[in-house]
Amino acid sequence: MKYLTLILFLALLGCKNVQPVNKQNVESAITKNANQLLKDKRFHSVSIAVFKDGKSTIKHFGELTIGKGNKPNDSTLYELASVTKTFTGYIAAKAVLDKKINLDDDIRIYLDEAYPNLEFKGEPIRIKHLITHTSGFPNMPLKSENKKAFFEGLKLIKIETKPGELYSYSNTAPELTAYILEKVYQKSFEELVIEFILKPNKMKQTKFTLNENDRKRLVKGYNDKNELMPNFNRTLWGGISGLHSTTTDLVKYMKLQLDQSNLIVNESHKKLYKEGSDFWEGYHWYIIKNDNKLVYRHHGGIYGMQNWFVIYPKQNIGISILTNTSFNETGKILEKVVDNLYDDIKIN
Fold first, then answer.
1. Cα Dmax for the chain
2. Best CA proximity match to 151, nearest among 237, 243, 241
3. Residue 22 has what pLDDT?
4. CB 80 within 8 A of CB 308
5. How far is CA 69 from the centre of its chain?
6. Cβ-based neighbour number of residue 142 at 10 Å
7. pTM
8. What is the mean pLDDT of residues 282-290?
9. Taking the CA of residue 17 as centre, how many other CA atoms within 13 Å lie in the half-sphere pointing to its CB?
10. 3-class SS at 64?
11. DSSP code string of 38-83
């Protein structure tokens, strides 16, 4: 009997040690990859958050201000840049489920003027084209100083390919999507993000509009010449960019995106447009699916900072990496760090 009790005790002791060892392995993997990144002197700081099997690990490295040694922390506010588009996609998915919009709707039914130019040989631009970058819209709005100017700019657009046939990244389309979502819900886009995403998931540090205290925590980023860059100034709805967040809140966003019981998440992860043998566009998610991997991801790049937000649903893993540096190669470099980090932690 004593022998059996000893075995049970050792088994229980072993079970208690499993999780700390796993977390330690994740921390080691984060540290290894962060230190490797910071060997490139164009990078000054990096924050990495990992959500794996229901447990979060967050670590920060480097300095936010060159020469001051002020390391980022869990309260540091980063600009999410184009990762904001995944929030736009989530609300669009909810609108589809709520039957407020239909993916096949001609976008002009939601506009106050005719816009005969927003078609190609009789083929209209549809909602699904806006959220998959297949609308034929230009990358940047032709006019973006304010919302009225934005609609004047829409009149100047010439659609030169059949909507839905060609992928071409557009920051114009998600702003129009945000406007349409405002119209069908009769609330501002900022209110929709708060009501449908931020409040239900207790993401209290994620916001469009910053107060004075928030601005003290907001990262000031650099280009590759170590020049301080300005923060983004939102003049339109915020469908493309404008959200700020912390690593702790992004872990909550990972948890949401990994919730396979959430019908809105499932809708937003649908493959809507195929680009290549294993690459699709969802509701502003880039989806990679092959025999070994399923990935939902999005990159965000703005004047002085960049980030990747990546979800691996089959492995129950989420990764967010944020840095206070932005130059042409930053996205590719961070993408490689994320891939290496995933390889390091997936078997632990």
1. 85
2. 237
3. 78
4. no
5. 28
6. 15
7. 0.93
8. 96
9. 6
10. coil
11. HTSTT--EEEEEEEETTEEEEEEEE-SSTTT-----TT-BEE-GGG
